[in-house]
Amino acid sequence: MSEPNTPPVPEVPEAPAGPYVYDYKAAPFRQIAMPKTVPLPSRQTYLAEQKAAAEADEAKWQKMLADYEVAKTKAEAEGKDAPKAPVRPVPRKDDNDLKTPVPEEAKDADLLKLQTLLGDKVEEIFEQAGELVCQVKKEAILEALTLCREDAALKYEMLADQSATHYPAAKDFAFSVVYHLTSISRRKRLRLRILVPEGFVPESACPLYPSANWMEREIYDMLGIRFANHPDMTRILCPEDWEGYPLRKDYPTVGWGQRDISFREDRSGMLERIALQKAGQLGINLKQPKAD
Amino acid sequence: MFKNEEMEINLGPQHPSTHGVLRVKLRLDGETVTHCRPMIGYLHRGVEKICENQSFFQGQVWTDRMDYCSAVANNLGWAEANEKLFGITVPRRAQYIRTLLNEFNRIASHLIWLGTHAMDIGALTVFLYAFREREDVLDINEAFCGSRLTTTAFRIGGLREDLPPGFEKLVHKFLAKFSSCLEEYENLLTENRIWKKRTVGVARLSAEDAIALGVTGPMLRAAGVAYDIRKAFPYAAYSEMDFEIPTRTEADTYARYQVRMAEMRQSARIIQQCMDGMPEGPVMAKLPKILRSEVNEVYHATESPKGEIGYYLVGEKGSLNPYRFHVRAPGFINLQSLPKMAEGGLIADVVAAIGSLDIVLGEIDR
User: Fold this and answer.
1) What pTM does this model have?
2) CA A165/CA B170 separation, integer angstroms
3) Is it true that domain B6-365 has CATH number 3.40.190.10?
4) Contact check, Cβ <8 Å, A213/B336
5) Which CATH architecture has domain A104-223?
6) A 70-89 residues inside an 8 A Cβ radius of B
């Protein structure tokens, strides 16, 4: 019987080095791919990328011009018609409603005020998609939060959300921790961000914002970042004896003893029986006589 | 029996009044609660991890299954967060239809809250009345997207389908009777002496405590803070709608009941305005077949019936799935305030406090 159209089984690499060792041979489709880039939005990186792209574009254009000059002199020497002059390619315009927001220069008064008050403790400020982002040094997070809460001109009363992201491809940090602050009286939102290496223990926001209690427990449970001066640093969603931190990028998405089931696979032999029956109706004998 | 001893008991995880699998560890001195510790995680499915390993579009079915009583509100927050990430402008007609369905969902969610909360406290009749009207809302859901509970109602960039023929008739039929239905519930509860004895002054949470603990939604508005994301940070078509934010200052269980009842009236008002001012036009933005994200991070919060539901997304350049998918579940944050409300009160009032929180464990554990 001919091979049914089974999808190509991906090559199973060696198990990733780290705390989670899993044999992916049982479930090859569920192997995790470690991220290769660091998708951390930042105006500095964005500007550097833009500059590099513009330079590459210019270099390409210059090469096209040079090639044209060479071809032109060659054609003149051979007495042929001159080649067509090159046209600088314009970026293709897509006919859709997508307009990806890019990191823009910080113009908001809150961000500028934070920068003047905190000085060189602020690593970066920018605005993206209408959201205010302020990245501070990891040691200064409590100071920044105090300022946001207590300063009369800022007055961010509520810590709406706190979360963290794992960046295994980054060199000088492993996690970003973000604090989403809301000012109810001024109707504003602000995102504070710190970059944390593996093993670093940032200060807990609990003394200032009691709502950070469970959110920091969740971050500890899911990503393994501990917080200093937290009243109750225990797991919250997973059991106490759970091993590993599920939201890290190297955590497997497959459980012990789990395997991939291919629904195209003819495990019961049903498809083959039907094929033989159909062939028999057409007068074809697919059953090959056995040698013995 | 004369010894002054404290007793420790577990409320849940299998207890009908904990609305799912919530376990509350209580320490009692007689009938007074001296210590209260909610323990969660019995329904943890790893929604965030699953969504990070699926494409942007596939995340929506998991938002349905977080807070299954207000699936449309979850879908709306998810869709708008993705649209913010990609920078998509949604057509105006789609915005109106989204607003319309979201308000219907708010009514359905508040009705299920009303029924179960009243049942916890002992008023069994209201449950049947509330579920009668909720059935009509679910019929409207079914007419729009074929599904009653886990709706998957929206798409990134708009809607999959326009409103079906005959939808207007369904809505008007519902609106015509709904205000009299609300009066019916209020006749059963508002001046009911037993209801008032069980709720007035029970499980207080002051405005300062609520803000410090991150409590949002009707819980916060019952403490006198007029914070509604539909007004504070307007999304969908809410900036064009005329409605009020009902608030109370008593900050107790009764005030939360009054706020939610008033909110249902406002929802009916918004639905009427949506139907009257429904613009014509397309319901889907022009998008490429495959969406690939750029490096970007967004936090988008919307007002779900339970409070602020926020989606935090991080996009990787050229990727088909979100690099990070985090949900700020309103129930998760609101449940933190349970010890504050329960400690010092009676054990019977813990049930009233849990009921007034309006929690769904599916979104708390995720």
Assistant:
1) 0.85
2) 45
3) no
4) yes
5) 2-Layer Sandwich (3.30)
6) none
